[in-house]
Amino acid sequence: MRVSRQGRKLYQRRAETVERSFADAKQHHGHRYARYRGLSKVQMQCFLAAMAQNIKKIALVVWAILSYLWRQFYLFEAWVKQSAKMTAGTII
């Protein structure tokens, strides 16, 4: 798969995405060193770090959606006010 041009591009994109995730875990979530001894405790540390990363991703998506909705609300509010001003001066 990595031999074809399309395969190389796909592999490069996947590598960038995966490496970024591991770098974030290492830098911000304690994957540089294991805090505990024993397989089950280290697995728990990894699971908690993965949960923290997923919560951060979800928060970013929710923030993007909410900020988009707020912008749309304020644009609609401005449009309603502008329409009210324009129709206030006309006599039907």
Please, could you describe this protein's structure?
It comes from Gallibacterium anatis. Pfam families: DDE_Tnp_1_6. This protein has 92 residues and is mostly helical. It contains two helices and no strands. The radius of gyration is 25 Å and the shape is elongated.
Q: Mind sketching the topology for me?
A:
Elements (H helix, E strand, L loop, with lengths): L4 H24 L10 H50 L4
Protein name: Transposase DDE domain-containing protein
InterPro entries: Tnp_DDE_dom
Pfam family, one: DDE_Tnp_1_6
Mean of pLDDT: 85
Total DSSP helices: 2
Unreliable residue runs: none
Cα-atom radius of gyration: 25 Å
Q: What structural category characterises the helix and strand content?
A: mainly alpha
How many strand units?
0
- Could you say which overall geometry the principal axes of the C-alpha atoms support? elongated
Q: Termini, distance in Å?
A: 70 Å
Taken in chain order, the helices and strands follow as: HH
Largest sheet: none
The proportion of residues in beta strands is under 5%
Report the helical percentage.
over 70%
Protein name: Transposase DDE domain-containing protein
Keywords: Membrane, Transmembrane, Transmembrane helix
InterPro entries: Tnp_DDE_dom (IPR025668)
